């Protein structure tokens, strides 16, 4: 009955006014469209009285509810609502991904209202991001600490990884508290994660703790964790702490934040590896490291510097990036906050010349927070004007949260191809030369374009 209003985002597919490098061929993509937008977040309450009593007791303060992360599963979009301020009644919730009734659907707490209860350590407290793997396991990062933007953050519960097997339908939560000697409950900030479904399932998690940033590795098979540090690539840098967007300037020195996982590849000695990409929020650089290095527990014990020989600085972006997302073939999507831009990079090309603008709009693209893919070839972008939130200048008379969608024909890195392990000693030296030749052709191609 009701029409869903779609606003076309004025997407500059390969913006004409970009640098010369943007002239090379970019596959045509459908423009991004707004599918949902909210001035403030409201919920599906258990009764109208509940909404009123939550409002009466300041347990629900509409302008304090920020939408941050987004993930797709089974025709639903799951969204995270980190409890940075007071008055956030639930920290994880869902909406239908496809419906025609409203542009501002009410959020349904997930798994339930009870499992989002503030102060109950069996329930979710502060979820910044989640991932859903290829076996339908939802991996939830619960920091346990709430009020992170208030003068008195409260470490209510231990930082934990919470797993839910979505296949079963009963949404039972398996909570794994992280050991205090590795993850300090007062300072850790479990920000984002990628899941690597092999050899017992690993999560690589960015911890943007202001005092001890790093990448935490969690192995699901034995629930073991370790933390790897590299100050040089995981810390904010002074020249990138200022964010200028929509007439507002914010100073945010935030450490390692976005993380993405590339497709499997075979190394010279025929082992299988993957590249992990990451960047601090307050930095212009993109970094890469091989997953096999992160999975080496002994590097966790060696402290800062142990990782340094293995970290590659891929080069710079024109602005800062919050979340990013890889597809199954190695195409990386990320935001450029100060440029109101969504960008992509084919990771088989040189980062310095291979970045492409796929959408730019100063009104609709105000702080890209996170991305997700669905199972029909669409990519979704969560835009949340975070600069207004951290400056405490959110106006609920304006649209603050938008979900944009575009058809790309791609799917998440989660569904990347599994390479078969080496079959025998006969294959020791095959294939290695091929990528080298391909890479040099690619470089020639780019130097030609650059002339
Ligand atoms: C909320 O507060 C109003 C005004 O004080 C009061 O009339 C109402 O009964 C309260 N509602 C609930 C559900 O507590
Ligand atoms: C929404 O509307 C479109 C066009 O009218 C229709 O094709 C689609 O099936 C509808 N989707 C749902 C979930 O109702
Ligand atoms: C965390 O902070 C609380 C309260 O200030 C303190 O009692 C506790 O010792 C701290 N824990 C750690 C691991 O620093
Ligand atoms: C990962 O390992 C491969 C094979 O050993 C190597 O060629 C590549 O440079 C490494 N990548 C990074 C980011 O260090
Ligand atoms: C892990 O790192 C240590 C210390 O650098 C090194 O000696 C060891 O060979 C590495 N293990 C693997 C499996 O790569
Ligand atoms: C992108 O944003 C940065 C600030 O983050 C600014 O210095 C730069 O000029 C912008 N570039 C373009 C092409 O808009
Ligand atoms: C990425 O680059 C590789 C090598 O140039 C190419 O084969 C592939 O088609 C590209 N992917 C996309 C989606 O353009
Ligand atoms: C900020 O964004 C709003 C909403 O798109 C727009 O109406 C306003 O003009 C923008 N302000 C500035 C200073 O860019």
- CATH domain class: Mainly Beta
Q: Low-confidence parts, pLDDT < 50 over ≥5 residues?
A: 1-27, 424-451
Q: CATH topology, anyone?
A: Neuraminidase
Helix percent reads: 10-25%
Subcellular location: Secreted
Organism: Pieris macdunnoughi
Keywords: Secreted, Signal
Pfam family, one: MRJP
Give a verbal description of the structure.
- A hairpin with a 2-residue loop joins strand 3 and strand 4.
- The model is unreliable at 1-27 and 424-451 (pLDDT under 50).
- By secondary structure, the protein is mainly beta.
- The longest helix has 18 residues, at 433-450.
- A 5-stranded antiparallel β-sheet has the order 1-2-31-30-29, with no helix packed on it.
- The protein has helices spanning 48-56, 231-234, 291-294, 298-301, 351-354, 386-390, 433-450, and strands spanning 7-8, 33-38, 70-73, 76-80, 92-96, 108-109, 127-132, 137-142, 145-146, 154-155, 160-165, 173-177, 190-196, 202-207, 214-219, 224-228, 242-245, 248-251, 256-261, 265-266, 272-273, 275-280, 285-290, 312-316, 324-326, 331-336, 341-346, 355-360, 368-373, 378-383, 401-407.
- The chain has one domain (33-415): Neuraminidase.
- The protein contains 7 helices and 31 strands.
- Bound molecules: 2-acetamido-2-deoxy-beta-D-glucopyranose (8 copies).
- The site of one 2-acetamido-2-deoxy-beta-D-glucopyranose (NAG) has 4 residues, from helix 1.
């Amino acid at each position: 009955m009701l029409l869903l209003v779609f606003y076309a985002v004025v997407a500059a597919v390969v913006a004409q006014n970009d640098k010369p490098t943007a002239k090379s061929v970019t596959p045509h993509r459908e423009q991004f469209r707004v599918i949902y937008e909210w001035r403030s977040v409201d919920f599906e309450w258990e009764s109208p009285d509940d909404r009123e009593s939550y409002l009466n007791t300041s347990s629900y303060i509409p302008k304090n509810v920020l939408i941050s992360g987004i993930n797709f599963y089974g025709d639903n979009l799951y969204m995270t609502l980190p409890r940075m301020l007071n008055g956030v009644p639930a920290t994880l919730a869902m909406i239908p991904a496809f419906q025609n009734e409203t542009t501002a659907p009410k959020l349904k707490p997930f798994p339930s209202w009870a499992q989002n209860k503030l102060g109950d350590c069996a329930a979710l407290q502060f979820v910044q991001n989640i991932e859903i793997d290829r076996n339908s396991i939802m991996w939830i990062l619960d920091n346990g600490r709430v009020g992170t933007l208030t003068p008195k953050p409260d470490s209510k519960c231990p930082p934990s990884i919470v797993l839910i097997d979505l296949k079963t339908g009963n949404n039972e939560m398996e909570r794994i508290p992280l050991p205090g000697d590795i993850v300090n409950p007062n300072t850790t900030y479990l920000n984002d994660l990628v899941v690597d479904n092999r050899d017992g399932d690993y999560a690589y998690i960015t911890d943007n703790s202001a005092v001890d940033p790093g990448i935490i590795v969690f192995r699901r098979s034995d629930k073991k964790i370790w933390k790897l540090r590299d100050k040089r690539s995981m810390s904010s840098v002074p020249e990138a702490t200022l964010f200028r967007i929509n007439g507002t300037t914010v100073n945010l020195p935030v450490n390692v934040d976005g993380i993405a996982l590339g497709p499997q590849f075979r190394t010279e000695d025929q082992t299988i590896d993957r590249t992990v990409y990451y960047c601090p929020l307050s930095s212009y650089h993109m970094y890469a490291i091989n997953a096999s290095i992160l999975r080496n527990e002994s590097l966790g014990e060696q402290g800062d510097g142990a990782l340094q020989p293995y970290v590659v600085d891929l080069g710079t972006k024109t602005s800062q990036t919050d979340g990013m997302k890889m597809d199954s073939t190695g195409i990386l999507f990320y935001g450029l906050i100060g440029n109101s831009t969504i960008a992509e990079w084919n990771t088989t090309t040189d980062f310095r010349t291979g970045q492409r603008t796929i959408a730019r709009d100063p009104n609709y693209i105000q702080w890209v927070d996170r991305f997700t893919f669905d199972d029909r070839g669409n990519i979704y972008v969560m835009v949340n004007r975070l600069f207004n939130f951290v400056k405490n200048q959110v106006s609920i008379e304006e649209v603050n949260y938008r979900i944009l969608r575009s058809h790309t024909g791609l799917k998440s890195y989660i569904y990347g191809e599994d390479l078969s392990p080496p079959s025998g000693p006969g294959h020791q030296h095959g294939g290695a030369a091929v990528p080298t030749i391909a890479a040099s052709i690619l470089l020639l191609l780019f130097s030609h374009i650059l002339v």
